[in-house]
Amino acid sequence: MREIRELLVKKINELLENGTVNRVIGWKAGDFCYDVTPAVYTKEDNLDDFLFDGFCGANQSKYLINETKEEGKVLVLLKPCDSYSFNQLIKEHRIDKEKVYALGIPCSGMLDINKMKEQGITGILNITEDGDTVKAETLYGTKECDRKDVLLERCLCCKGSKHVAYDELLVPEAEENELGGVDRFSKVAELESMTPEERFDFWRTELSKCIRCNACRNVCPACSCRTCVFDNAASGVAAKVNADTFEENMFHIIRAWHVAGRCTDCGECSRVCPQNIPLQLLNRKFIKDMNELYGEFQAGADSETKGPLTAFTKEDAEPGIIYTRGGDR
Length: 329
What we know:
Blueprint: H1 2-17, E1 23-29, E2 36-42, H2 64-67, E3 74-78, H3 80-91, E4 100-104, H4 113-118, E5 124-130, E6 133-138, E7 141-146, H5 153-156, E8 168-169, H6 186-192, H7 196-207, H8 215-219, H9 247-259, H10 268-272, H11 279-294, H12 317-326
Parallel strand pairs: 1-3, 3-4, 4-8
Antiparallel strand pairs: 1-2, 5-6, 6-7
Helix pairs in contact: 9-11
């Protein structure tokens, strides 16, 4: 990661100096060493606090919606999985591609601080990565763990290390990364094996944890409406309730329907959830169902192909019923 950061700083300065871009979306430290947040840097800024480490998981594509409304061209740093969201937003005309310079950066997987804490690593002061080992300096001494054991779940189901969109690659000949190799639909299959009552209880338990902080919505590249239905007082679903009602469930169910066919499975919703609700699992169920109904489809694989819910054919699941019952209309 240290080598990649050095290459990034050099490339960023080069692009700022030659006028290719007038600002860059990067990352900087938050209150804790693992609390890394996106930040905008300009030519006048010092890049000393610019970070690139295992906690730079944030998908920068979402920030381009507002950034491309500003003057000049912005440099965006895209990990391979981020590039799918980038393509999807271009397809939906939510970002102005002419105002973006996309730099593809290599990624060997991002770290999950919750998994580290589950291993008993608490009181963390600093974290460093040494090959396959993650070392944490804590209030209780130095702790170590295997990197593969603390990767984000989305990284275990990685779509691959190839970028599907970029203007330039930071490392043109980056090696293919074989991460967890986990089937991303394995957890969905576990859900499908449950009885309806068991599934209801599972989601009722998980979604009842929701505190309606809106972190999942705010970070999701597919949630790009100027005014969200959940901010509309006339919608009937705008109140933030944390009680024994079904309202907090509806927030996530409605949101999942709104991003269906457009979700790139980037996993940002699960990454930022302070209650650790497996929100990505809900979206994956939708993805799996659409693959079975309409054929294999990966949102954001390119910026032109229409999604399964926006490309009508007579072979679609629902029209098949309509044409059978109502004749050829």
